[in-house]
Here is the input.
Amino acid sequence: MIEPTKRKSKPRSWRRLLTVLHRDLGYFFGGVTLLYMFSGILVNHNDTWNPDFEVSRVECRVDLPNEQSMVTKELVRKVVESMPAHGEYRGFDFASESRIKIYFDDGSLVSLLGSGTGLYETVRRRELILRINKLHLHPVGWWRWFSDIFVGAMFFLVVSGLIMLKGRRGFSGRGKWFFIAGCIGPVLALILGA
Here is the structure.
């Protein structure tokens, strides 16, 4: 009986191992990458909006006298009862001689005494976005260690991506030009102090 010839297994190259590790780490850290990407976009634009809190302002009618000494608890309660919608009333004080601030559990109303109007400002937390941003900006406990491991994995992904391919499609070919082009933005930001 003739025995079948055994095929010799090719030794795996280090580039093949890099490809496998690059792919698998990319899959494993994909969720964290998306989380940091989403949070980064929100935080980058926090000068135009508050990603953690939703602030709404509504102008209200406020019938109070223009003298601080004439404002009583009963008058303030009447103002609160006349408002169409509000949180639970907590109290009031005077921000200045001519300005009153009425506190609610969800915000506050500020009015210039005797003006007849006031601004009711409410603040509501955006829970999910607040938690995502907290993970990104203030890592604590085990998440700090996981984030550090993630940074190490990102470093590995960059280096392995640079050396994985060889020839004209690799780093020594067109790869170096893409790498240099990608570095221009951060270098300019550092120089110009953006």
